[in-house]
Specification:
Layout lengths: L11 H20 L2 E4 L3 E6 L1 H15 L4 H11 L8 E8 L4 H10 L7 E5 L5 E2 L1 E2 L14 E7 L2 H8 L4 E7 L2 E6 L2 H8 L4
Antiparallel strand pairs: 1-2, 2-3, 3-7, 4-5, 4-8, 6-7, 8-9
Length: 193
């Protein structure tokens, strides 16, 4: 997937006019790219459209309209766009109760290194997590992690041919897996070249 440039973005005025329709389009697109793994973990797979939405929202909220500021946002978010042989995702541990969340984050240290995808017929691929900085301490993991799953050429071909894709976590305190539905596989296949 090609990275975003300033030319791909709407001005603040254009975005204000088109935000509602654009947001609706993005939310519909995201539905097939959101994968729950058990009751408290979700992978949100990113692509060019989801990242454009995040950048547009950041520019809007921060009222950024100068070229240098826009370039900073592009530099921060473009690495989250898949490169054609991988999937990139935001991983979230979701516990609504703050006390429960605190307890679970302490029990789930290392979960980001135990998250995997598996294309039918191939070995599981573990996530490469938090390449920008470590998001855990000796006491707890973070509630948000950024992940990349690198796929071989054979895996890419299999996904594009409609192979079953499973996603899971093999952490001692949180072990779940799920098989993706057809809509999710088709959406993620579009990330691959």
């Amino acid at each position: 997937m090609t990275k975003l440039t300033r030319a791909d973005l709407m001005s603040l005025e254009q975005y204000a006019e088109q935000r509602s329709a654009f947001r609706e389009k993005v939310l519909a697109h995201k539905a097939a790219r959101q994968v729950a793994i058990g009751p408290n973990a979700t992978l949100y797979f990113e692509d060019r459209l989801t990242i454009q939405y995040q950048i547009q929202e950041m520019l809007r909220v921060e009222r950024i309209f100068e070229a240098a500021g826009i370039e900073e946002e592009l530099a921060a978010y473009n690495p989250l766009i898949p490169d054609g042989a991988n999937w990139k995702a935001t991983f979230m541990l979701e516990f609504p109760n703050p006390e429960e969340r605190k307890l679970w984050l302490a029990k789930l240290i290392g979960i980001e290194r135990q998250t995997w995808v598996q294309i039918n017929g191939f070995d599981p691929v573990l996530a490469i997590a938090n390449e920008d900085l470590s998001r855990e301490t000796a006491e707890k993991t973070a509630a948000v992690h950024f992940m990349r799953f690198e796929l071989s050429a054979g895996m890419v071909a299999a996904v594009k041919a409609g192979a079953q894709v499973s996603i899971g976590i093999n952490h001692p305190n949180y072990t779940y897996h799920t098989v993706l539905g057809q809509a999710s596989v088709l959406s993620l296949a579009a990330d691959l070249s």
